[in-house]
Specification:
Helix content: 25-40%
Order of helices and strands: EHEHEHEEHEEHEHEHHEEHH
Structural class: alpha/beta
Low-confidence stretches: 212-221, 223-234, 236-240, 256-268
Organism: Vibrio parahaemolyticus
CATH superfamily of the largest domain: Spore Coat Polysaccharide Biosynthesis Protein SpsA, Chain A
GO molecular function: hexosyltransferase activity
EC number: 2.4.-.-
Oligomer: single chain
Largest sheet: 9 strands, mixed
Protein name: Putative glycosyltransferase EpsE
CATH architecture of the largest domain: Alpha-Beta Complex
Number of strands: 11
Mean pLDDT: 81
Number of domains: 2
CATH class of the largest domain: Alpha Beta
Pfam families: Glycos_transf_2 (PF00535)
CATH topology of the largest domain: Spore Coat Polysaccharide Biosynthesis Protein SpsA, Chain A
C-alpha cells in the first residue's frame, strides 16, 4: 500500500531536524515524504534541502507564504499514496508509528481516517488519551474533533473530493475538524490506543497563537444531530451561540471528570448535552 507523509513547515529551524529524522528512521520504509516550505524566513528551507539531498524519499516543495491550509492542500495534491500521514515540523513520530498506523488502516478498510494517543513535550507534559472506537469518535465529532491532527492517517482525500480544496480556508484554525466531518460521510473514524507521537507545545504554535481568534471568531463549526439521528448537520453559529456552546461543553466535561482521566464523551451523555445545547440556542 502506497503511503505519503505530508509535512507543512514554516520557521521551525529549532525543531525541524528531529522531526524529519523521526520520519526517515521509521521501521516502515515504503513511503514518500512531501515537505512543503511555506515561505520560511529562517533556515528551515536550507535544513530541508540538506535532508532532501540525503534521502530520495523526500519531495521538497517551496512556495510563497500562503498559510497552513494552502500547504496542506498542496501536499495532498502532490501525493501519490493511497494513505496520507500527517506530520508537523516541530513534533516527533515514534519509530513504529507508520508501521502501526498503516497496519491498522489495512486491517480496518471501513475506517477512512484515524489517529493515535500522544505525549505532550516542551512547555506541557503528559499523555493525552483519545476515543478509540468508531462509535465514540462519531459521538465526540458532534461537539469537537475526535482525531488529533498531527497524529492522523487518512485515505487520500483525492479519492473522495472533486476539487483540490481538501482543507477549506473558510474554516481556518479548525480546518482539520471540518475535514473529519466531510470524511465521516464516507467511512468511520477511529484511533489507535497507543502513544505514537510526541506533540511539542511552545509559544510559537499556530494553535496557541490563534486560540483567542478561534474562540472569538464570528462564526464557528458545530455539529448537531439531525432530527432523524441518521446523519450529521454542519451548523454555523453566531458568536453568542458559540459562547453558549463553549460554556456548556466546558461545564459538562468538568462534571464527568473528562479533564482528569481517560474518559471521553459517551454516546448517551453527548446526546444529553446536545439536547441541552439545542434548547438553549433556540432561546
Amino acid at each position: 500500500m502506497k503511503v505519503s507523509v505530508i509535512m507543512p513547515v514554516f520557521n521551525c529551524e529549532d525543531y525541524i531536524s528531529i522531526a524529519i529524522e523521526s520520519i526517515l528512521n521509521q521501521s516502515f520504509k515504503g513511503f514518500e515524504f512531501i515537505i512543503v516550505n511555506d515561505g520560511s524566513t529562517d533556515k528551515t528551507y536550507e535544513i530541508c534541502q540538506y535532508y532532501s539531498s540525503l534521502d530520495s524519499r523526500i519531495k521538497l516543495i517551496s512556495q510563497d507564504n500562503q498559510g497552513l491550509i494552502s500547504s496542506l492542500n498542496t501536499a495532498i495534491e502532490e501525493s501519490i499514496g493511497e494513505l496520507v500521514v500527517r506530520m508537523d515540523g516541530d513534533d516527533i513520530s515514534h519509530p513504529s508509528r507508520l508501521e502501526v498506523q498503516v497496519k491498522f488502516m489495512d486491517e480496518n478498510p471501513g475506517v477512512i481516517a484515524s489517529g493515535t494517543c500522544y505525549k505532550l513535550i516542551g512547555e506541557a507534559k503528559g499523555i493525552v488519551n483519545v476515543p478509540i472506537k468508531p462509535d465514540d469518535c462519531r459521538s465526540l465529532l458532534k461537539a469537537s474533533s475526535c482525531i488529533a491532527h498531527p497524529t492522523a492517517i487518512l485515505r487520500n482525500p483525492k479519492d473522495y473530493f472533486n476539487n483540490n480544496e481538501y482543507y477549506k480556508y473558510k474554516y481556518r484554525h479548525v480546518e482539520d475538524y471540518f475535514l473529519w466531518v466531510e470524511l465521516s460521510k464516507f467511512g468511520e473514524l477511529a484511533n489507535v490506543d497507543q502513544v505514537l507521537l510526541d506533540y511539542r507545545v511552545h509559544p510559537n504554535q499556530i494553535t496557541q497563537k490563534y486560540n483567542k481568534l478561534m474562540i472569538e471568531n464570528q462564526k464557528s463549526i458545530v455539529l448537531l444531530e439531525s432530527q432523524d439521528d441518521s446523519s450529521l448537520i454542519v451548523n454555523v453559529l453566531s458568536l453568542k451561540e458559540k459562547f453558549i456552546l463553549d460554556e456548556y461543553i466546558l461545564s459538562f466535561v468538568k462534571s464527568i471528570g473528562l479533564l482528569r482521566k481517560e474518559k471521553y464523551l459517551g454516546k448517551y451523555l453527548l446526546r444529553v448535552l446536545l439536547s441541552i445545547l439545542k434548547s438553549k440556542i433556540k432561546k
